[in-house]
Amino acid sequence: MILFGLVSAVSGPTYGTGTLMHMGPGFMPTALGVVLILLGITIAGAGAAASTAAAADGAEDENILPANPQWLAWLCILAGPLLFVVFGTIGGMAPATFACVFVSALGDRATTWKGAFVLAALVTIFGVLLFHTLLQVPMPVLEWRL
Fold this sequence. Notes:
Shape: flat
Number of strands: 0
Number of helices: 5
Number of domains: 2
Order of helices and strands: HHHHH
Structural class: mainly alpha
Largest sheet: none
């Protein structure tokens, strides 16, 4: 997280940050980069404190991976953003959001196909209303191109 934050915080100002009243295109990447750096430092500090406390208690080393890793869940959750990019390029915001949420929701063992479909449909409707209608993000809602 610290590495991603550093890359974003260092490359963001090259686009021009502007001011708080008139933000430039580099403002958000820079601000989010700084937040990622602080979050990464916080996570590392908490992990180091927990490790020191465990060592002081004489606890044995733990495995990093759980006993039964959920590989399908990891694959679904990691595939979601990738599908957003692919479907966003080919079909627009609505199919990209639907595909991303549907596949990511299937990463939960308790989620059914029907539940994932309903969740994806609701998030797609809300996302299109918010980002296209209200915020006017310049991304086509539904467009077929290869």
